[in-house]
Amino acid sequence: MKLVRFAHGTRGGWGVVEGERVQEIRGDLFHPGPETGREFALSELKILPPADPAKILIIARNYAAHAREQGKQVPPEPIFVSVSPQAALAHEEPIHYVPGAERIDYEGELVVIIGRVTQSVDESGALDHVAGYTCGLDISNRDVQFGPLKNISAAKSFDTFKPFGPIVETEADPQNLDLILRQNGQVRQQSSTSDMIFPVARLVSAISHCMTLLPGDLIFTGTPSGVGPVAPGDVLEVELGGIGVLRNPVTAD
Questions:
Q1: Domain holding 33: CATH number?
Q2: Dihedrals φ, ψ of 153, to 5°?
Q3: What are phi and psi of 92, to 5 degrees?
Q4: pLDDT of 73 above 90
Q5: β-strand partners of 235
Q6: Residue numbers of the domain that contains 17
């Protein structure tokens, strides 16, 4: 089931996406209810972030080709970094380029939205704790990440640096999704989530043995090769086959 969180005038809600139409439902991503009978064109809705995360976790080097392009080894266990939830951004909202930054990079990713309290869960049952899957952009300030401080958490925590959405697929196979990132219409990254080193179930389990995950928490599951720089004026798109397209412009404001 494809779900979207939206605003229509002063009204907010959730709906089931059917082509270019949205059937409003009662409830939300975590407790979806029956349809209300109201229907909207997807194009007339303001799309809202599909979750309000208390935590955002980023997985590093989860695709072997990306590890190679960074000149680093494949990790023996999942590496995850916590970043500020204030970095979350909705579909179509602008990513703000940091003034004076020499290099800021894009990374297209599959994002996992946690659906219920998750603590020390086994890998075999981990996917039962997932509410759904959506598109994500992991934007990184490389001056901070690779500069004197080498602070990866800060590099990825700038406001607007974690766009995600717009559509959540609740029934996807997270290890069988085509992933494409386009920059100004040109394909820069193209891979499949089947190329992940650590599958989603392993990631959820590993993180939950370190910290309790809450409904709405996000896991950015890593990026394939093809990472590159962005500039003000760019438009970035992340497409996940069978789910949808996340689109965000980059501005200097």
A1: 2.30.30.370
A2: -65, -45
A3: 75, -5
A4: no
A5: 249
A6: 2-47
pLDDT exceeds 80 at position 68: no
pLDDT in tens, 173-216: 999 999 999 999 999 999 999 999 999 999 999 999 999 999 99
d(CA 29, CA 167): 11
- pLDDT, residue 245, reads 98
Question: Cα 11 to the chain's mean position, in Å?
Answer: 25
Residue 33 contacts residue 25 (beta carbons within 8 Å): yes
How many angstroms separate the CA atoms of 25 and 127, rounded?
24
The answer on 113 and 165 residing in a single domain is: yes
DSSP string, 167-210: EEESS--TTS-EEEEEETTEEEEEEEGGGBSS-HHHHHHHHHTT
**How many distinct structural domains can be found in the chain?**
2
Is residue 168 exposed (0-12), middle (13-18) or buried (19+ Cβ within 10 Å)? buried
Position 241 pLDDT exceeds 80: yes
Distance CA 216, CA 206 (A): 18
Cβ atoms of 161 and 246 closer than 8 Å: no
Question: What's at 2, amino acid-wise?
Answer: K
Three-state secondary structure string covering 104-116: EEECEEEEEEECC
Whether 17 and 109 share a structural domain:
no
User: Does residue 17 share a domain with residue 67?
Assistant: no
Place of tokens 């995950």: 213
